[in-house]
């Protein structure tokens, strides 16, 4: 057994087993051998303890106070030192032994026997950069939050997190799915809206412009309003509307007046029909009268003596040649005469007078009325046999009467015809 020596004098001491010991003596500390315990003993449990047989009788601060006289015992009840940090026992020599019950690195609460959690803040490190490490006056660790982060703190570096939950990640866009992953916000856009999405309602867009809203009904107005199609009815149809064609053109024929006198107006199945009048060369829209011509070819009067002219859609056929006695419409040549007075006699009495027949001057023929006409002598009687030798069958016609032929070699009378 190792006995204490009381020769040394210390300024600050406690009394253990009748000896005053320094307050920082290793009583109750962990040990491997007696050398680790100074003037104490390393018991088999690895704890520095006081010498057996000394029971403190003071207030009990965990290391014994009082006069330190050896205390005899019959059982453990005789050895209670009012220190919850020691294990009380009645030893083999019937002396009390009060050994530290646990190895408390930071001291022990003698009232409860609970080890102190800390001596200072370093003992309270919780490996969280977002807290302050504090050892309280009661030797209890406290780790209050040191950050002012509204949405949480990153324990590894003390920086504020973007979010605690998805509610912190609201981007005020109904078209995104908001999420919080490891303190970082995610706002994933909807993938099922090929034309985009309404950020206010979250509904997929139906259109980008009116061309995407055709409902196939000619009686509605196709519109794209904030990405949604609208089809308000048309209000510009005075005579009603037909879904296949749009506004009805008419209720009756009066609705179909096209202010064109060259058409016949009608209303057929709410549609106006304006049938053109059949005019070969066009029509006057004010009067409805057909035009005479479009070009000179429409004005051909089949008269070679005129020039065919179309002016103001009206035909005109002025004379093309200046003929004093008229013109032949077949070939455009001028007539010889227009009256008998335009013809001159040829001076031969027997040819008769010159006359205008079919615009040509011709001789009227024998002027003797059945008698014989002498070229120079005029008419010769009426009751005669002949006028020329041909009338006498080869004989002579002499004085209007047939005679024997003139004998050969004879010079016949000049009266012979």
Provide the structure class: mainly beta
Main β-sheet description? 2 strands, antiparallel
Order of helices and strands: EEEEEEEEEEEEEEEEEEEEEEEE
Spans of at least 5 consecutive residues with low confidence: 1-23, 51-68
Mean pLDDT: 79
| Strand order in space, largest sheet | 1-2
Number of helices, counting only DSSP H or I runs of 4 residues or more: 0
- The rounded Rg comes to 78 Å
Strand content: 15-25%
Termini separation comes to 219 Å
User: Which word captures the global form?
Assistant: rod-shaped
Which percent bin holds the helix content?
under 10%
Defining traits:
single chain, 417 residues, mainly beta, two-stranded antiparallel ribbon, rod-shaped, disordered N terminus
Describe this structure in words.
A hairpin with a 2-residue loop joins β11 (223-225) and β12 (228-230). The chain contains no helices and 24 strands. With 417 residues, the chain is mostly beta strands. 0% of the residues lie in helices and 21% in strands. The N and C termini lie far apart (219 Å). The chain has strands spanning 13-16, 19-22, 41-42, 48-49, 86-90, 96-100, 134-135, 141-142, 176-181, 184-189, 223-225, 228-230, 241-242, 246-247, 263-268, 271-276, 309-311, 314-316, 354-357, 360-363, 372-374, 378-380, 396-398, 401-403. Among the domains are: 1-116, no CATH class; 380-417, no CATH class. Residues 1-23 and 51-68 have low confidence and may be disordered. The strands form 12 sheets. A two-stranded antiparallel sheet has the order 1-2.
